[in-house]
Design goal:
M1 Pyruvate Kinase, Domain 3, about 15% helix, globular, catalytic activity, MoCF_Sase_C, MOSC domain-containing protein
Amino acid sequence: MNPNGQNAVVSVSRDDRHRFSKPAVESIRLVAGFGVEGDAHAGATVQHRYRVARDPTAANLTQVHLIPAELFAELTTLGHRVAPGELGENVTTLGIDLIHLPLGARLHLGTDAVVQITGLRSPCSEINGYQKGLMKKLSGTDSAGQVVRRAGVMGIVVHGGTVTPGDEIRVELPAGDQLPLGVV
């Protein structure tokens, strides 16, 4: 939870081309079953180039990428300056521990949009091309030897709507067993 008690959207980003970073914009429009309107990663089937090469007919479980702003603050203390959109995310959040949400959690963004969390983003090697040594800060192992990925989460749009910075975010946990997130 952030200090004022409200989970919120800090920034929104999109890019119509496959580039590492996405420019921040005033708002994004989420389209159910498709993703962020005008973003290169939007579509009912996979759009990430490496996934298309493996199976272009696979369902797109990575329509929306979300990262917590708290990660950027932590990276700054470790010598890496990262601003919203620079790691390729569509939505930068505040107040939500995204990587510890269970599979299927739903984020209600603003008044209409709903994104269902499908898994963790696996940091790609392009991160070190962006800033040398950053990959190591976003992926590592914990004391039990388990891989920890900190580059945000991915989701699908289950209800469309417009999302703008300052919008409140409400978390809806799935019914039943709370399953941990895997990599998508």
